[in-house]
Write a structure and sequence with these properties.
Elements: E1 4-12, E2 21-28, H1 34-44, E3 48-54, E4 61-67, E5 72-73, H2 77-90, E6 97-102, E7 105-112, E8 115-121, E9 126-127, H3 130-135, H4 137-144, E10 149-155, E11 160-165, H5 171-175, H6 181-187, E12 195-200, E13 210-216, E14 221-224, H7 228-242, E15 246-251, E16 257-263, E17 268-273, E18 275-284
Length: about 280
């Protein structure tokens, strides 16, 4: 028997259509097997497709999973923001708080005026030891070439490698760095790195506290337009450097997006942004 699934495309971390990071959101009355979820995500070919099911028929507590075109991922900020936007703006959920059971534990989304704020885990990066520096020499070289950089750090839980470029680099130069799937995959294929963060601070990042770009060809995504989970790594890095807990950030992909961030005392981070619902339709299975 055919199954009809409501499906939406949402641009996250933006107040403008056709910018930010697009995600697909599928609202499931009954859960689907992982094979079908992956086929749907591959068909849609967005950086993430989100699958939502209610828990015990509650209107504010859900199971949430995210799939890229090639595999499932344990954490996705823009997918969570997109899902919350559908529940708040289309489904007209009562109340201002939603909770999601995910592979990264319990996440929450709260409506705050025109924004949606995500309660996410913090993933502090660490400086590379000598062995890691040796293992990642090729990918660092592929990422920055001859560009000057100040620091390289890594978070093992998210498998994200962070490279902080020298603040002598101009914003336009930073935005025009070109990396290909092939160059990154050839430089690193051991599975130790699942995502590459490039970041820039200093006067050339103004009016933001920092800028970033994010690449994840190991998960079937070349450049991710705006990545919430990358900011769970970026936030503790920049909060320590700048000695501040309230941060503003811009991800400088072609589509671009903005994030307002609060580092909390309980070891978590609030990431706030806008979202625009672009497409509303039905998936026929």
């Amino acid at each position: 028997m055919a199954t009809s699934v409501p499906i939406y495309t949402v641009d996250a971390f933006t107040s403008n259509l056709f910018s930010g990071n697009p995600a697909a959101v599928c609202l499931l009355d009954e859960d689907l097997c992982d094979e079908i979820k992956q086929k749907i995500a591959t068909e849609l070919n967005l950086s993430e497709t989100c699958f939502l099911t209610k828990i015990n028929d509650q209107d504010s507590f859900f199971n949430l999973r995210w799939f890229t075109p090639t595999n499932e991922v344990p954490l996705c900020g823009h997918g969570t923001l997109s899902t919350a936007a559908v529940l708040f703006y289309i489904c007209k959920n009562q109340g201002t708080r939603l909770e999601f059971q995910t592979k990264s534990g319990l996440l929450a989304a709260q409506k705050q005026g025109e924004f949606i704020s995500l309660d996410m885990p913090l993933n502090p990066p660490q400086k590379l030891d000598q062995q890691q520096q040796h293992e990642m020499k090729a990918i660092i070289s592929a990422a920055v070439g001859n560009l000057p950089y100040d620091d390289v750090q890594y978070n093992s839980r998210t498998k994200k490698l962070l490279i902080c470029l020298s603040d002598t680099l101009s914003r336009s130069h930073f935005e025009n760095i070109k990396l290909t799937n092939e160059s990154l995959l050839n430089a690193h294929n051991t599975g130790q790195v699942g995502g590459l963060i490039l970041t820039l601070g200093g006067p050339n990042a103004k009016p933001y506290d920092f800028l970033s770009r994010y690449f994840s060809p190991w998960n079937g995504v070349n450049e991710d337009p705006v990545c919430g989970s990358a900011h769970s790594v970026l936030t503790p890095f920049w909060a320590k450097i700048l000695n501040k807990k309230e941060l503003t950030a811009r991800q400088c992909s072609r589509r671009g997006g903005e994030l307002w961030i609060t580092l909390r005392d309980d070891g978590r981070v609030d990431i706030k942004g806008n979202a625009k619902i672009v497409i509303q339709g039905t998936l026929n299975l």
